[in-house]
């Protein structure tokens, strides 16, 4: 899914940052809201379960260009599945979040991918698989290799994070932002070309950029 | 005293933890609260005397215009549990089904239900001292029991996130597990449409109904939403699902629930319309989707919602007439549209 982006929703006028919509999907209690709050506010606390959807915006400064991310944080409980579908509309990027200590949440992330594939054309959305809670390494049920291999087989970006320890959280968002900008550049917006991002890389090579 | 000193003094007088066990937020405006509370206390005292007279000598509360008027002006905390139980029919259910609640908890278990509930226990009111693991007694266990019993009782619903907040409030008010269970049953099973069922059709319907009501009563706001293609669900789903818990101040939520138990789910529309109408100009300043989302967060904060007595008067005047006939008709048409959309 990571190739040949057609980011029709991304728009820009001179001087304005690109605006992209990013949705977080994944099982209940895997840390979707915690990742967002860590990224937005440099804070980690006992967050309440997300009911419905929460919305945040953040401008990601990428050196020569910037990208405004509209972050849609969704409810994880199965019940909200049909409601979450409403939030897909017009998404440019998705984070499929799972908890490395819960195999079921890894499978759920894969199901979310299938849902995305039904809704979007291949490559229409930048998708990153995110294994959260590396601070609980002793209880790990999903190995790094498993996550990475699945991501590679589906052409997804991949990272492991810890919202609690602030490990690779901002990297997740900046990598996605970089990918979004690169795709916008690939589409031929000449002012963006060649700036801030490395073009013509195989997806596999990009994975290694963002993995430890 | 300069303003900083006044704020400091107010901070010293108002307890850090509210009467329900919630820690006041970091940015809590102690001075404004104290000013509001000094007038509200007079109202509370007056209402307490009136209610004592009303309830004296009769152990049953019958629905009447007097009771409706009294309820709209607020049920005193000491009578709240009893009046909610009576008005909602929860008391009658409990009386007719002795031992039912206990039997649910002693009956067959459901590992997936237990797991879903357990996931949210630590995440329900971490800012309330009575829900802390270390508190004695700890209400997490009570909450677990109520939600588990309810999930076993109403298997079509099971457990849906949001119900934890509602059950939590019921427990704080009734201080009684079984009563909380029957009140939750009154809300989820009878008073609210199917907000928590797997398809959440009742929720989706009511969000559309609100959109229609805004279109009728506040067309400029509706035009703004349409212009930006904003989904109402993004802005208001929590209002419906959580019945304003964790959205409006605690005291205001309880005053809303007083009417909800007596008058039914249309109260939610009254509250939503009042919030939007009161801040119409402010909302119309929004230039983008993030702006709109931000404004909808802001309109649930501040003096307007803290001053619960005035707020409750407004919900019955500001939105204008809102008949149950209108609501029923809109619900039918919105539901039909949703069903054809699949």
TrEMBL record, chain A:
InterPro entries: P-loop_NTPase, Rab_GTPases_membrane_traffic, Small_GTP-bd, Small_GTPase. GO terms for biological process: plasma membrane bounded cell projection assembly; protein transport. One of its GO terms (cellular component) is recycling endosome membrane. Signal peptide: none annotated. It comes from the Eukaryota. Its EC number is 3.6.5.2. It catalyses: GTP + H2O = GDP + phosphate + H(+). Keywords: Cell projection, Endosome, GTP-binding, Hydrolase, Lipoprotein, Magnesium, Membrane, Metal-binding, Nucleotide-binding, Phosphoprotein, Prenylation, Protein transport, Transport. Residues 184-212 are annotated as: Disordered. Belongs to the small GTPase superfamily. Rab family. This is Ras-related protein Rab-17. It comes from Phodopus roborovskii (Roborovski's desert hamster). The gene is Rab17.
From TrEMBL, chain B:
Residues 74-264 form the Rab-GAP TBC domain. Pfam families: RabGAP-TBC. InterPro entries: Rab-GAP-TBC_dom (IPR000195), Rab-GAP_TBC_sf (IPR035969), Rab_GAP_TBC_domain (IPR050302). SUPFAM superfamilies: Ypt/Rab-GAP domain of gyp1p. Keywords: GTPase activation. It comes from the Eukaryota. GO terms for molecular function: GTPase activator activity; small GTPase binding. May act as a GTPase-activating protein for Rab family protein(s). This is Grtp1 protein. It comes from Phodopus roborovskii (Roborovski's desert hamster). The lineage of its organism: Eukaryota, Metazoa, Chordata, Craniata, Vertebrata. The gene is Grtp1.
